[in-house]
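Q: Focus on the chain.
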Amino acid sequence: MPHELRKIFFNAVDLTHALESYRDGKPLFLPQGKLYHVSVKPDHLLVRIELKYLDNTHLLDYQVDYDKLLDVVIAYCVEHRIPLPSAGSKRVFCEGEELVMEVVLSDEAVSAGAAKSEWARLRGVGAVNIN
């Protein structure tokens, strides 16, 4: 059976923007404060947040599991109009110093998620031939 594999790579800057945007909509996701540093680790994302209190500055480290990061990067893609299929499986993992969202579409997932008329249109069936 044919299938499609798509990978979307996120560097530290992209992840910082994605985390800030996601935190704006869900303030309990991470504490408020300046995102000081984001680092991709093999099993989680390490986020360092700078908190300032009067004369004191604290740097706090938070681990964000990849399961939760899937929601963050999907929201980022939707916000920035990066096309994502609703069908198929999605997962995130680390590759080097970047986070990767992998989308796998199998033939079954695609055919179950699309109407027959849409497939006919995509294949050009019934299209008007202009010569």
